[in-house]
Amino acid sequence: MDQQVKALIRKLKYILLMRPVFNMDALFSDETENYVSPMEPKPGDMVKIRIRTQKDNVDCVYFISGALKKEMKLEFSEGRFDYYMIEIEAGTEPIYYYFEVQDGQARCFYNKCGVSRDLQKSKSFCIMPGFSTPGWAKGAVMYQIFTDRFYNGDTANDVLDKEYIYIGEPTSQVKDWNKPPAVMGVREFYGGDLQGVMDKLDYLQELGVEVLYFNPLFVSPSNHKYDIQDYDYIDPHYGKIVRDEGELVWDGAHDNKRATRYINRVTGLDNLQASNELFIALVEELHRRGMKVILDGVFNHCGSFNKWMDRECIYEHQNGYKKGAYITGDSPYRCFFKFQNEHEWPYNPFYDGWWGHDTLPKLNYEDSPKLETYILEIARKWVSPPYNVDGWRLDVAADLGFSPEYNHEFWRKFRNVVKDANPEAIILAEHYGDASSWLRGDQWDTVMNYDAFMEPLTWFFTGMEKHSDEYQAGMLGNADSFMGAMTYHMASLMAPSLQVAMNELSNHDHSRFLTRTNGKVGRVGTLGSEAASQNVKPEVMREAVVMQMTWPGAPTIYYGDEAGVCGFTDPDNRRTYPWGREDLQMLAFHKRAIAMHKRYPVLTHGSLKFLYGSYNCLAYGRFSRECQIAVIFNNNVHEHEIRVPVWQIGVTNHHVMRLIFKTDAEGFTEEPAVYPVHSGEVTVRMQGTSAVVLLAEKDSLPSKEEESAMRREEEALQRPQPFHWKRNQQCCETEKYDI
């Protein structure tokens, strides 16, 4: 039967039944290499763009980009699908596009939110010629280390009791490694350092870690180190102290003018250079092992201890250092900050602080080209020899500067400098909300993935907000909300950014995910640290980790999550790694889940499609033409049977689905099990609080009787179905079909 006759039959069906005959679930395209080739084109490249439809189901497909509307040609057919293709030449401008699908008088549009009646150009697909993200980072397993709490490998560099005054009180050295952090414990130090990381590299490599992301390492007085004192050097308390002399602060002291032990430790070039040398050795060892390292760049603000400000008078009388802007109005750094009162020197306290904090002086880039040059050189320095860092994580990146215009201008310069020094370095920003204006190929590579990962996942599995500040019963297990939020927010990221996005369950700014599973609303100051570990549900966390390891992006483990560490939000989330007290089941589970993630390239580079959603149940596919994986969750406490339409990811009745990973309330397993495929679906009886990962494999050749049955099933699938538009909560609402 030729195509014209088939088209005529479809039109007659449409007229008689008064409903469209599209198989909406068969329509699919995205920006991965399966549908855009090359996925990261250079200007001048010919780019092949595809869309998939059900076989013999549509009359024509149009590619629409700006004023261009061009019919696509049928490239090939495979299984139940037709693949339409067009080739275009990449120029220097972004290519925004969507598809129009026609069958007789019926038509629909297809963009990043899927099928819609009404076109939403803001969610168009996008190819950015010349924009690429590092290949090593695509799907890489990252591990975040809050250094003071990871492992103490060198007790000689520990911060001492009364070593200096920080925010009005002296520092303290915590003697009990297992003590939970105090509510106001910003001046408490446990002694973790870079030697400790070096000592534990075998552990990290056995876990499966490929990239280390460090919270700030530069000289700083706090245990979190987001108040940088000197961007040029690793803090000797994390590095090496080769010359240790001077006095501790006196009882009753209110400033650091006589804190000579601290001053010598952090201003002496011998200590600073030795610390940088240790860091070089660490990076070299990581690279020798095939691992990468990302530094935390805090460039929006510095600290009141900073040598440019020197509010604490640390550098005032030290040789080799110029006077800080707090000390004198003649300081060469005066323009680095905004001072409100020009008549208060010496010791002028009237400067802008970030969010009003005088311990965090806001950096004044717009009025200081010298500051801009300095920070850009810092950006270049650490990704260049001899340090050779593999990228930057940018703290509060959207806040830098005093205007949006300058913010974007600075990050363009930053990208040029970093990529010029190290083209394979990643630029990864902390950001909440829509980051698309920074992700156009000329500024950041990607973001910490709060909106399109951590937040929707947390609501679905726990009903909790990511700080444990709120519980919403209506969000727990709400598959429609989850799928809508994920679809909407993922549409803001192009594929190169999405594949390297930092997908975390926990980090230093939010409660530990395991604690969120207990549903307790509050913080350590009101509930106490013990409450964070009460009634937690490790089986729910294992579900979440399965999603983390099968979702597009770079799964990022916050140190200790793999060992069962609990904690409310900052500072309780910064507990020490429990060496010798690990949850061994959780640790073994992480090792195997990571190994699964790394074993199947489709989990790092493949397409994503939602397949099923109901209360507390969810299924999606990760797939390419060569490999298909289905991931299924039952977050209910009772058993639930789920029928998953795996035909939508290219699985046919010639396949079986083999279990490659499973977790439930009892634990986890990789013991094989086989699920047959009938009528393009696989049926799985899910135990309570469980997740399974299934891999499609070719079955034995079917008999003639089985071939006839499968042919009848496929013909049935092509018959007109009752009209139904799937709703997308946030992007693709439709009420009726327009002819």
- Based on helices, strands and strand pairing, what is the structural class? alpha+beta
Measured distance between first and last alpha carbons: 27 Å
Poorly predicted ranges (pLDDT <50, ≥5 residues)? 16-20, 717-739
Looking at how many chains there are and whether they match, the oligomeric state comes to single chain
How would you sum up the global shape?
A: globular
Tell me about the biggest sheet? Answer: 8 strands, parallel
Mean pLDDT equals 92
Number of alpha- plus pi-helical segments: 16
What percentage of residues falls in helices of 4 or more residues?
A: 10-25%
Can you give me a brief rundown of this structure?
The chain has 739 residues and is an alpha+beta fold. Helices cover 23% and strands 22% of the residues.
Detailed description of the structure:
- This protein has 739 residues and is an alpha+beta fold.
- Helices cover 23% and strands 22% of the residues.
- An 8-stranded parallel beta sheet has the order 22-21-20-19-16-11-24-23. Strands 25, 26, 27, 29, 30, 31 and 33 form a 7-stranded antiparallel beta sheet that branches. Strands 3, 4, 7, 8, 9 and 10 form a 6-stranded antiparallel beta sheet that branches.
- Strand 19, helix 6 and strand 20 form a beta-alpha-beta unit.
- Helix 13 runs parallel beside helix 14.
- The C terminus is likely disordered.
